[in-house]
Amino acid sequence: MIVRHCASAEATQAAGEEFAALLRPGDVVLLSGRLGAGKTTFVQGVARGLGVRERVTSPTFTLVRPHGCENANGVTTLYHADVYRAGSLAEVFDLDLTELIEESAVALVEWGETAAPVFGDFLKVTLSEDDAGGRDLVVEGALVRTREHALTRWAGA
Ligand SMILES: Nc1ncnc2c1ncn2[C@@H]1O[C@H](COP(=O)(O)OP(=O)(O)O)[C@@H](O)[C@H]1O
Ligand SMILES: [Mg+2]
């Protein structure tokens, strides 16, 4: 199992920043974990790693927000979605996220586990609180196999 422990919010951001290095255009990352687990914090780190310049917050009223970026991965847009308030799977499907990211984008979806049926292959990051108030980040999903080595290194950092 690929698990990375994060003792602080800064550590969650650093984990996101390093995770960004192994993302490729077209990737979907589903973020799972209860309210306050650190999903948005992780996305902020990924955004930093992908070279997003603007501030990343929860896309509460829009469900999905695009952030332009510049990096060595060839990713030009980070789509940050939060489907917590989506009324149905159909509503998530209507966001057309898989269409949006086809060319040179990636999508990170908070509460993504509920929307998993809408997507094909994806990485799933599950965040949970540990006994000491930190977080454990578990990475799973079909895309793990092709990135096993990089992810194992990421987990060991
Ligand atoms: N590894 C961590 N240890 C302790 N606190 C953390 C950690 N990661 C994130 N947090 C804190 O948890 C709180 C909720 O984070 P947030 O990213 O908004 O969660 P979510 O998007 O899952 O609701 C924030 O105050 C954040 O600073
Ligand atoms: Mg959030």
List keywords for this structure.
Rossmann fold, 157 residues, alpha/beta, 7-stranded mixed beta sheet, 7 strands, binds adenosine-5'-diphosphate, binds magnesium ion, single chain
What is the CATH first-level class name?
Alpha Beta
Helix content: 25-40%
What fraction of the residues are assigned to beta strands by DSSP?
A: 25-35%
Structural class of the secondary elements?
Answer: alpha/beta
Structurally, how many domains make up the residues? 1
Q: Compute the gyration radius: what is it? A: 14 Å
Largest beta-sheet details: 7 strands, mixed
Uncertain residue ranges:
none
Tell how many strands the DSSP assignment holds: 7
CATH architecture: 3-Layer(aba) Sandwich
List of distinct ligands in this structure: adenosine-5'-diphosphate, magnesium ion
- Could you give me the name of the CATH homologous superfamily? P-loop containing nucleotide triphosphate hydrolases
**Averaged pLDDT:** 93
- How would you sum up the global shape? globular
Determine the number of helices (DSSP H or I, runs of at least 4 residues): 5
Strand order of the largest sheet: 1-7-6-2-5-4-3
> Do you know the CATH topology?
Rossmann fold
Q: How are helices and strands ordered from N to C? A: EHEHEEHHEEEH
Amino- and carboxy-terminal Cα gap: 15 Å
